[in-house]
Design a protein that fits this description.
membrane; 76% helix; mainly alpha; transmembrane; transmembrane helix
């Protein structure tokens, strides 16, 4: 086979427009063949998540719908936008309860940190640390629950799965904390960056659990 024919065969295999190459392993995310198209999809989801999350308490279902859309897109499944809005419609009622609880805890923790740093309370430094840890736990819980939600499991199933999912991947939880910090920092620096930040957060919720891990790699090699 000539070099040009080889390139054409690889291109057809990568895009799905022709026969596949038997020697090539299946792609982990077959929908992510074009980084430029993926960037556009992430930005689009950032816009939609920001739009749905405008009332604040709808942030959980906005993230969950965005995560499910990007998961479908990356897996080269049907990612029509009608599915995004169907997810929002399916989970908005239960998600409002989660949103209220998350907003309340966020305000309590921020107030706790502010009072602790004012010096008005004895042991303020310890209380501030507890507040920051609480914010990290809240961020992980919200993102993991958004990633676990589906119309079948509902929010109750997603919340019940939180301890198991975090125990199964504690390093992934730290990655999600870093993602949340990144989103807050870039938004604080320039508010319009909230849109791409939300898209990146949704992408991270999809990608972090799918990342290659040493234990999984060793199991694959054993088999």
């Amino acid at each position: 086979m000539s070099r040009a024919s080889s390139r054409a065969a690889r291109r057809a295999d990568r895009t799905g427009s022709g026969p596949t190459l038997d020697s090539a392993p299946p792609a982990r995310f077959p929908g992510a063949t074009s980084w430029f198209a993926l960037l556009g999809e992430v930005l689009l989801i950032g816009v939609l998540v920001a739009l749905v999350a405008l009332p604040i308490i709808t942030l959980p279902i906005a993230l969950a719908a965005g995560v499910r859309h990007l998961r479908r897109y990356l897996l080269a499944e049907d990612s029509n936008m009608s599915f995004f809005w169907a997810d929002v419609k399916s989970g908005v009622l239960g998600g409002i309860g989660i949103g209220f609880a998350a907003a309340f805890l966020l305000l309590v923790l921020i107030l706790d940190i502010d009072i602790a740093q004012s010096g008005a309370l004895p042991g303020g430094e310890f209380i501030a640390v507890v507040g920051w840890v609480g914010l990290a736990v809240l961020a992980v819980a919200l993102l993991v629950a958004a990633g676990a939600w589906s119309p079948e499991t509902r929010w109750r199933g997603a919340v019940r799965a939180l301890p198991r999912l975090v125990r199964a991947d504690p390093i992934g939880a730290l990655y999600l904390v870093a993602t949340a910090i990144f989103a807050v920092v870039v938004t604080w620096q320039l508010f319009p960056l909230l849109i791409p930040a939300l898209g990146c957060v949704a992408l991270a919720v999809v990608a972090v659990p799918e990342r290659p891990r040493r234990g999984q790699d060793e199991q694959l090699e054993d088999h």
